[in-house]
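testing teh design pipeline on a random one, pls ignore if ur not involved
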């Protein structure tokens, strides 16, 4: 078999359906749009969500709460989870992702002070709690804000 001999399977390719091309086509004259009215016109129809002048659903349902646009989605990790790294290692967001401690850093990573750390690490993330920074430095490491 050669490339020039390839052809699609029988009946797998059909011609594009052409509307409004005369009576004999089976879909002429009004072309499936009906005899008149808004939807028969070009550019006719109403916007999405329009319910004929009735109060639309998205305005009828109650709105609850408040969603601040300026909030940051910060991922929190406890200091005890940093014990998986080798002694003297540099821990940044990429290292946390490669170990599976963070899947998506979003707006930043914060180290919290829950648990204890036995290894001397240089930790470079966006935020630290006071207790986490003290525990990292007490273990002989460094807490650097990036």
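output:
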């Amino acid at each position: 078999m050669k490339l020039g001999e390839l052809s699609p399977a029988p009946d797998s390719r059909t011609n594009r359906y052409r509307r409004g091309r005369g009576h004999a086509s089976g879909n002429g004259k009004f072309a499936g749009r009906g005899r008149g009215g808004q939807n028969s016109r070009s550019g006719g129809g109403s916007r999405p969500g329009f319910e004929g002048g009735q109060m639309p659903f998205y305005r009828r349902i109650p709105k609850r709460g408040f969603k601040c646009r300026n909030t940051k989605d910060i991922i929190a990790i406890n200091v005890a989870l940093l014990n998986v790294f080798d002694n003297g290692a540099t821990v940044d967001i990429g290292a946390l992702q490669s170990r599976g401690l963070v899947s998506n850093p979003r707006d930043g990573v914060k180290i919290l002070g829950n648990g204890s750390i036995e290894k001397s690490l240089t930790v470079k993330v966006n935020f630290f709690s006071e207790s986490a920074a003290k525990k990292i430095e007490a273990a002989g490491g460094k807490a650097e804000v990036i």
